[in-house]
Structures are given as structure tokens and as C-alpha cells.
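If your schedule permits, I should be very grateful for your opinion on a structural question. I have a record of one protein: its chain in single-letter code and its fold written as C-alpha cells. Would you kindly read the sequence against the C-alpha cells and tell me how you understand this chain to fold? Thank you for your consideration; the sequence and its C-alpha cells are set out here.


***
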Amino acid sequence: MEQKEKLHELAIITVNYNAYKVTQEFVASLGKQTDHAFRVFIIDLSTSTEEHEWPSWVSVFDGPNGGYSYGVNCGVREAQKMGYEHFAIINNDTEVAVDLVKQVKIALTEHPHGLVGAKIYYHPGFEFHTVPKKQQGRYSGMQEAISIGFM
């Protein structure tokens, strides 16, 4: 594929740390997208890597555990090397809507200098507001709302 064509594609970046089952579920939810013009970049910072078969639209890069932001930065760099200019950073414990790629691309077209954030819906029983205040932040997968801003 020519580099110019990649300008209209989306690089989806996620970080894995010893959570292969969760990452496989994340990739499976992305496989249901209505818009297939994307590539997933998994940055694997696990202490011991496991061999997995991934779809052809997934690239996996191993690296030392430098933390989440280190993994995201590695993913952005790898995507840029392949000619991508649009990025979606998504936690691997996320299940995405079938039109996520389409909606992100629409938002970026309408607001080319913008930052797009997602509304988070929790599975029943995992709502952030139901966790006692003294225990907030202790559960994996818990996230605070992401703000949306446009320049």
C-alpha cells in the first residue's frame, strides 16, 4: 500500500503487559469494525512473551517494561515509520463499538487539529461510581472520563 493511502487510515495503539487474553478480546472487538482502514499496533511490555497468532492487520512489537506511556510512545513511533498520521490510543481492556474507526475518522476530518476522546460505558457491576471512595483506583480496568478538546 502506498504511503499516501495510509494518511486516511488509523493506527490503533495498545499496550500489553501480561494480559494476552484481554488483548485477544480487544483485537476480536476491533475485528468487527465497519471501516477496515486501520492497523493495530500492540506494544508488548510483558515480563515473558507468549506466541500468539494475530490477524494480518495487527503488528506486535516487544520491548522492555518502561511503563504505559513508554509503550504508547513506542507505538506512535512504529506507526509513524509506516506512514500513519492518525492515532487512537486505547487500553487493551476495552471493547469498542463496531463503528469506532468510522466515527474517529469523521471527527478527525471535521476537526483536523483536534483531539478526540471517548465516552466510557462500564459493564454492569464495574461502574466507577459504585466503588467506595477509599477503594477507587484499586481495580484494573477502572478509568476516569476522558475529556474532549478541539483546537
